[in-house]
From TrEMBL:
Listed Gene3D superfamilies: Pseudouridine synthase
Domain Pseudouridine synthase RsuA/RluA-like: 100-264
Catalytic reactions on record: a uridine in RNA = a pseudouridine in RNA
SUPFAM superfamilies linked: Pseudouridine synthase
Top-rank taxon: Bacteria
Pfam family, one: PseudoU_synth_2
Protein name per UniProt: RNA pseudouridylate synthase
Length: 318
């Protein structure tokens, strides 16, 4: 097994530096020439500044602005961070030991850095606030979904816990608030094929072999709205006499599976800006959170063999 190189730069804001492997062949005279071609989204002037400030490293330290291109080597640097609006909600630690960390993630906070969300993510916050630079997520939760997320503290155990989720050995229960429909018979199991195309913000249900399955149970009818209030359900409008509190049990883990399946039943989750109709919402708008909560995680610990069950302390509103 090839030995993993240790980055010559420390973490910044809880993030490791990016590593760029240089090709073994090339006609570039300098490293700068290669970076300008390799990183088209970064302005050449910005690359010049990074080199002049000694922010691009190889294994020997900062690379000189006129350094020659060195085939087959690597360089490291920290990417420029996007401007982010602080998410004004706290992460709550549910459980922590030397192996794992379980937290309650609030609505609007992404699990891991991606796109416009970097520092304002659960992973970066936890690494910084708890002093755990090697913390990694065992799974992910949508930015707009609240609830339980399991992180791995010990890097040597990361594979065991991530594999547990990959192999569907974790019992998950979600709670959702959605319109009550008397004609909807529950419990019901929804089965469909869901696909998510790269670059498209929403997923879709399409014909073909089933790859997504969810059990939906009505737990309680909640009189959260006055009878006769009109609730938008896609292209039609239903007259709703209240809301329902639902328990959702996903047997698979496709992108936006629970949201799509609830919408397909005619009971889209309250405040869903994606399904059944896509509505644009500013990233700094923290009102009207999606009423979906990852309520329970239960599994047999792959390291100790102990039975684990965690329940979120968060709650949804009607």
């Amino acid at each position: 097994m090839r030995r993993k190189l240790r980055p010559p730069l420390p973490q910044r804001h809880g993030l490791d530096p990016a590593r760029l492997r240089l090709p073994v062949e090339g006609s570039w005279a300098t490293l700068r020439d290669h970076l300008v071609e390799r990183l088209p989204r970064v302005a050449p002037e910005r690359i010049d500044v990074m080199l002049a400030e000694g922010r691009i490293y190889d294994l020997n330290g900062p690379v000189a602005p006129d350094a020659a291109f060195a085939p087959g080597t690597s360089v490291w640097f920290h990417r420029d961070l996007p401007e982010e609006v602080p998410v004004p909600f706290d992460l709550r630690v549910v459980y922590r030991d030397d192996a794992i960390l379980v937290v309650d993630k609030p609505h609007f906070l992404a699990t891991i850095p991606r796109g416009k969300h970097v520092v304002q993510t659960a992973l970066v916050r936890l690494r910084t606030e708890l002093g755990l630079p090697h913390l990694t997520p065992a799974h992910r939760l949508d930015r707009v979904t609240a609830g339980l997320v399991l992180f791995v503290v010990d890097p040597a155990l990361r594979g065991k816990y991530q594999t547990m989720f990959k192999d569907r050995l974790v019992h998950k229960e979600y709670e959702a608030i959605a319109p009550y429909r008397a004609e909807l018979e529950t419990p019901v199991v929804v089965r469909s094929r869901i696909v998510k195309e790269k670059g498209v913000i929403t997923a879709q249900e399409v014909p073909g072999p089933v790859n997504a399955e969810t059990r939906v149970e009505l737990v309680q009818r909640v009189e959260g709205v006055e009878r006769g209030e009109r609730v938008e359900l896609g292209e039609r409008v239903d007259v709703c006499g209240g809301w329902g509190r639902y328990r959702l049990l996903p047997f698979t883990g496709r992108t936006h599976q629970l949201r799509l399946h609830m919408a397909s039943l005619g009971v889209p989750i309250r405040n869903d800006d994606f399904y059944p109709v896509l509505r644009e919402k500013p990233l700094d708008d923290f009102t009207d959170p999606l009423q979906l909560l990852a309520k329970v995680l239960a599994f047999t610990d792959p390291v100790t063999g102990a039975s684990r069950r965690f329940v979120s302390s968060l709650s949804l509103s009607v």
